[in-house]
Amino acid sequence: MSTEDAKNTTSTTSTTGTTGTTGTTNTAATGTTPGAGTTTGTGTAPGATPGADLTTTPDTDADTPTPDTTPTPDTDAAPGAAPDADADVLVIGAGPTGLLLAGDLAAAGLRVTLVERRPPGISNLTRAFSVHARTLEQLDARGLADDLVATGTPVTDLRLFGRLALDLSRLPTRYPYLLLTPQYEVERLLERRASSAGVDFRYGTELRALRQDAGSVTAELADGTALRARHLVGADGSRSAVRTALGLPFPGASVIRSMVLADVRLAEEPGKLLTVTASEDAFAFIAPFGDGWYRVMGWDRTRQADDDEPVGLDEVREITRRALGSDLGMHDARWISRFHSDERQAPAYRSGRVFLAGDAAHVHSPAGGQGMNTGLQDAANLSWKLAAVLRGEARDPEALLDSYQAERHPVGATVLRSSGALVRLAMARTPLRRAARALATRLLGTLRPVAARAMGQISGIGIGYASGARRVPDEPLREGRLYEALREGEFVLIGPAGAPAPLPATAPVTPGRLIRAAWADPARRDTLLVRPDGYTTPLQG
Q1: pLDDT classification of 240: cutoffs 50, 70, 90
Q2: How many angstroms separate the CA atoms of 517 and 487, rounded?
Q3: Which of 52-61, 433-442, 448-457, 521-530 has the lowest mean pLDDT?
Q4: In degrees, to the nearest 5, what angle opens at C-alpha 439 toward C-alphas 437 and 440?
Q5: Beta-strand (E) ranges in 490-540?
Q6: DSSP SS3 for 530
Q7: N or C end of the chain: which has fewer CB within 10 A?
Q8: How many Cα atoms sit within 13 Å of 242 on the Cβ side?
Q9: Are 366 and 1 in contact (CB under 8 A)?
Q10: pTM value surpassing 0.70
């Protein structure tokens, strides 16, 4: 389990010790950063910039019209069109999702402006801390994975409910583990990359309203400025001002209340590196950051407090004792919070020239640590499609942009189901549900194909799309590795050495800078066209 962006929560936090419709205007509620909620505290949280504001004000619901979600044709998709626009793409929200997306687009040669309501500085909370294998592959394709791995602790052994051990070292990837590292380390690397690529950062302001016309989107900001772009992406968290401005619903419900989490030191090391254990009335999760600090998350059925009720280390200790049988000598909490978690998903990820990604599009329980990872995969999927359209390389621009919804919405729905099932198993109380948990644990522990499928789903490397696109592993090439070739941000056409294949007429784009490569294995005679996000389908001939 993990807490992704403190999820879709309202929380009380204490910090101690170290540190739309085309042609209409839609009004946004007060925006918020990813992991929306009310978070208050004093001092400097891990990863924070000294003096940074530790207060995030929750959104108020806005009464907005239901938008026409019919996409507006991109009539000026050719390079150089809409010269009076302030940017090609305006991204709202500088969490991991927004930062990766903005960096990709800027690296593709597009003009990108990123708006963030926080003042400049690294994220001031350690919200998410689990980076899965597929996310590491995406970061490898951007030259960032090795730097991130150096900041964290790789974990290959997951112990669930005291019986089940999942061996992540069997994952067929260059990164066969779960990397435990604070979210601020992810943001630091992505922000550095985005800045180097030329992203225009606008900190300390937020979206108030937006309007669309046939060729652009105009965003009105809280500081009184208005920015016009050809497309806009809302990556601004669960209380998304962009989603609210569009009038898009966010159906769902709370899945669990009064969860507590803390960063602490332990006098005793846990028996396993990653431990999730449940008793009849409580469950707890402990994971190491690798620097002597541990993330502890717990839930007690007998204590269902409101989110704004203060939480102290004694309560965290008690929950851990109830679930694990020991508090492991917990001491020196540097951050403690109480929160609740929702399961929600927007019905549409696209409305005309506006897109939603990350927590703005979907939120779910913290089980599986998939929140930040799913958002980063959204960004990787959308960025190359926007770039292809805006550079005039898409054969069918509308179909390509629509494929973002077609590919990523089902993934979001699957994550909601799987993470919800995990947290309900952890909360199981009735004999029937506890028997179901025991059966699921037994099946995962004894049937290797079942365990492999579960690990593939959670890690992301087993996710494919109904379009036929499938993840491509880091294939050895005559020129090096595939994911090194993908660092150019372009399509890679791989074929037999000495027999370069033409770009098939069925390819979705006519890329201006196609990278050609050859298999390292001279016996391979097949041809693959690999998308910039590392997905492909076999091509004939």
Answers
A1: very high
A2: 13
A3: 52-61
A4: 65
A5: 492-495, 515-518, 527-530, 535-539
A6: strand
A7: C
A8: 37
A9: yes
A10: yes
